[in-house]
Write a structure and sequence with these properties.
Length: about 500
């Protein structure tokens, strides 16, 4: 009857995000499946890639559609595609996944013979280089081992996941706050609601495996962030599936020695030219432990540096330049698994920042909130610090500032300010609550700077110490022109706040 959908109509949904240059190829491959099965609906979800979307729009046929959703949250992209689907079955895939020959005809045959609510499709690998070969091997090892041992729901992935549209809507679609963990959380809810999840191993899609760390970093990071949010929002379901309800956080006990080692490793790989963007992690030369500092930004830098170092080591092992002994396949898989974990730790740190922000919002604020106008008129920037018992720690660019809780009568603030980049900053100009400090108020003693406050500033309470460096001189001429090393970073540590016991120069006090 005209206007009535077939019983086994399928809507293929895939976003153009993370297409790896195969978006058009994936669309053509799915359209070729229409020769075997006519009841196919292809929904492509664009995320703001105008040129690619224009080419996709020209290639779409009558039953297909292009949905615009400007976001990098893949859970939102898939939900946007599912919202316009009219087929009975939703087949979630990726723009770097292509169906095998006669894949859709086999799928419809399985749907006629079996009564299922959702299914995990079989997967084959298409490698593009040595990196992607290791990625494929690790994927097979994890799916055949620990992930399958947990349950079939743990193997649900967006490269090939089939679900009834009615069931998908009844379970609330993908939770968008879970990002790349949304499909795993949905699969766990699916099993908990006693829906039938099956494995169609003979219905195969070919996955074009990752060939660089840039293709896995975002997925690993956002997947771990979503997993942490899932454990927080649905602890009972998380405990039923994973055996624990606590979020999978990253380690937060980096010692000063570990920080030094991270800096040396990162700098060595930077000099060798093994990866870019390592310059920003030279800040880890500062031997300060997060347990003593407590700043989430330190944890983020440590996690990012770990990921970059793991990537450099993996690339060295991959190309045979890391050690004299050739790396075995097992060594490569272990190092690649470590690299993926390091990338995921960045997402865990982002979750810790969210949690810390909520805790601070629930508790009475120790300091008034800072408005942007408080510092804009002084020409200095601000990076929020943390304060513990008179000690503060802050990273900043050449413009920065820190709040200090100063006891009444404190006359001297001892600072440890040193450059942490390949460019050495000149002596910064300091401001105390927006007032420029004279050069006489800044004394260098034993490699540290002492800020003399004077009697007028001895009332105690909150003090905003800010600084600005207006010019730089290159510490190494060979690195001065490198665009990624064009910004020098300053680290300031308030090492002590000394009460007034000695005389203060009269000109400063005045």
């Amino acid at each position: 009857t005209p206007g009535v959908r077939p019983n086994h109509s399928v809507a293929v949904i895939f976003p153009l995000h993370d297409n790896r240059g195969f978006g058009l190829q994936a669309l053509r491959a799915w359209q070729q499946q229409r020769h075997d099965v006519s009841s196919l609906e292809i929904i492509v979800v664009g995320s703001g890639q105008r040129r690619l979307e224009s080419r996709v729009r020209k290639q779409l046929s009558a039953p297909d559609s292009l949905v615009n959703c400007r976001t990098l949250n893949e859970a939102k992209l898939y939900n946007a595609g599912a919202a316009v689907a009219t087929a009975d079955w939703l087949l979630f895939s990726e723009s770097h996944v292509v169906p095998a020959k006669n894949m859709l005809s086999r799928l419809t045959e399985r749907l006629k013979d079996e009564t299922v609510d959702a299914a995990v499709l079989g997967s084959a690998h298409e490698t593009r280089g040595r990196f992607s070969q290791v990625d494929a091997a690790l994927c097979e090892r994890e799916h055949a081992g620990p992930m399958r041992a947990v349950g079939l729901w743990r193997c649900v992935g967006l490269r090939g996941f089939l679900v009834r549209r009615r069931v998908f809507e009844q379970l609330g679609c993908f939770v968008e706050r879970y990002y790349r963990f949304a499909e795993t959380a949905f699969a766990l809810r699916l099993v908990a609601a006693n829906y039938h999840l099956s494995h169609f191993q003979d219905v195969v899609v070919r996955h074009i495996d990752s060939d660089s760390v840039g293709e896995i970093f975002f997925a690993m990071k956002m997947g771990r962030l979503g997993a942490c949010r899932f454990h927080e929002m649905e602890p009972e379901l998380a405990a039923a599936g994973f055996g624990c309800s606590s979020p999978p956080l990253s380690p937060s006990s980096t010692s000063p020695l570990q920080a030094r080692r991270l800096w040396h490793q990162t700098f060595r790989h930077l000099r060798a030219g093994r990866f870019s963007a390592a310059w920003q992690f030279v800040q880890l030369a500062l031997p300060v432990a997060p347990s003593a500092v407590g700043g989430w930004w330190f944890e983020r830098l440590v996690a990012s540096a770990r990921a970059h170092v793991a990537h450099a080591v993996f690339r060295g092992m991959l190309h045979g330049s890391y050690s004299r002994r050739p790396a075995t396949d097992s060594d490569l898989l272990d190092q690649y698994a470590l690299l993926r974990r390091r990338c995921a730790e960045v997402g865990a740190v982002q979750y810790q920042r969210e949690t810390a922000g909520r805790e601070r919002a629930e508790e009475p604020a120790a300091l008034p909130s800072l408005r942007p106008t408080d510092l804009g008129r002084h020409g200095v920037g601000f990076f929020p610090p943390e304060v513990w018992q008179g000690k503060a720690y802050c990273w900043s660019r050449p413009r920065g500032g820190i709040y200090i809780l100063r006891p009444p009568g404190a006359a001297v603030i001892q600072l440890d300010i040193r450059p942490t980049g390949h460019l050495t900053p000149r002596k910064p100009q300091f401001f105390l609550d927006g007032r420029a400090l004279p050069s006489e108020a800044i004394v260098e003693r034993n490699g540290r700077l002492e800020i003399l406050l004077g009697d007028a500033d001895a009332s105690g309470g909150r003090v905003l110490l800010s600084w600005v460096c207006r010019s730089f001189r290159p510490a190494r001429a060979g690195l001065a022109d490198h665009r990624e090393l064009g910004v020098a970073l300053i680290a300031a540590t308030v090492t002590a706040i000394v009460r007034q016991t000695a005389h203060v120069p009269e000109r400063v006090a005045a």
